[in-house]
Amino acid sequence: GEGEDGEVSVEMASLDFMINDAFNVRTGLMLMPVGLINELYEPTLYHGNDRPQVERDVIPTTWREMGAGVFGAITPSLDYKLYVVNGLNAADFKDSGIRSGRQNGSKAKADDWAVVARLDYEPVLGLQIGGSTYLGNSGQGQEFAGKEVDAFTEIYELHAQYQYRGLELKALGAQVKVDDAEYLSEERGSEVAEEVTGFYLEAAYNVLPHFVAGTDQYFAPFFRYENIEYEQARGASVVEGASKDYQVYTAGVTYKPIPNVVLKADYRNFDRDEGTTADEANFGIGFIF
Asked: What span, in angstroms and rounded, lies between the C-alpha atoms of 177 and 154?
């Protein structure tokens, strides 16, 4: 409860009205259909103890908002989602991106609304390609540096993943743009990111079937490369700072004794353009039920 009385929250709570394969309705506190992780964030479903930084610092996973929309399958291989949700809150945007602007349902400001849409296509078994976009104002009727601004926010994301036998490949690229960021920067007295761009590439391979025939267990070494770049907007009172661009190299293993339980170990290297580096060794367990 941030120092006050305790509180309980939920990550998602929605009602689905199932009409037919092509058209269904969803309303409530909904996970935004952006990226590969935001809707499938359980620890058994991604490699590494931490989610990819691109899906945290560019796409603000885990991200949910209040709204309503439609979803379905246009064809057996083409799925869509289209939601209208409350907009982000630009008052909390930072030099690191829009992550702090998520409203998460509770007491959300809704002077401004947004549209989020997603398409996924599976041309052949094991291959999925798709993309999503988020468009909406984030000003929420507030003044920044003495002016009420729209702070129109755009997110564009493309992704692909391929799985064949033990091989798993993933690629994702995303970009965030924020209009009126110079007014947000002047109001905060610090830089606010006008544009954030990032991508990652990941490969993994389940080697266990080569050593234990017929096993249902899973053991996969993996490697992931990420790159994130920032373009800052600066108000009149903001002093130019060092570059925030960085790259992340992650290598590790994922072991599942059964599908619902995972043990993970990984090493991450952060290489920042400003000249600093950081190394991490992470170990964890996870489960779903």
From this structure: 5
